[in-house]
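Let's practice the habit of predicting before peeking. Look at the sequence and jot down your guess about where helices and strands might fall. Then scroll down.
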Amino acid sequence: MQSVPVWDFPTRVFHWALAVAVIASYLTGEEEGIWFVVHTVSGYTVALLLVFRLVWGFAGSVHSRFSDFTYSPGSVKTYAKQLLRFNPPRFVGHNPLGGWMVFLMLVALAGTVVTGLFSGEDDGGAGILLPLIAAPGGEGLAEVHEFFANAVVALAGIHVLAVFLDWFLTKENLVKAMITGRKDLDDTEVGNQKPLVGRWRGVVAAFIVAALGAVLIQQTDFAAIASGGAESEHHSERDEPNDD
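Done guessing? Here is the structure:
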């Protein structure tokens, strides 16, 4: 067995940065004030990471490309049967179920991001695209946004369980592999591996993401977001009838 680089650096950064951003966004989703600013920034981070992953799915190293883990339903069914017999085959990249999980997660995350941009209240914390669809005081797609957010959490839980199940059955530490980028492969697998792509591709992808991030920041009034919740509470207290 030889230790061979499988996951390139941009893919690993994407994976762990996405995990942190999703956790931060989920924990601050019901908050107001400065914490809603954190929610907004972490949501933007998720959006930018998804853009990067879309680019990297075509320009990245072989096991980071969508074509490497796009499996037919028949392949997934066969793998599932082998998994139920506790004898799944080992894959250098994503296994068939893992590949489908990646696509489901990306769709759920995209749904969360898009609905988040259209969610909120005009007098409180709101996505920058809310004015396009909501009348004053409307809540936009807040409920749909919450549905997608919960779907992401559920998929993430399944993903974690699947990683540890695979670790138990195949004795392959996928967590370590996603940190170091390396896996132990036999001579046949080593011979079939292609080298990782050059760093310049990651630089170009990062530049695209940075440009989009600058646009998002420029279009966002963070001061209004931070004060929105407090102003909303103040208005509700002012509108309450005075019993005196």
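How did you do? Residues 142-170 form the longest helix (29 residues).
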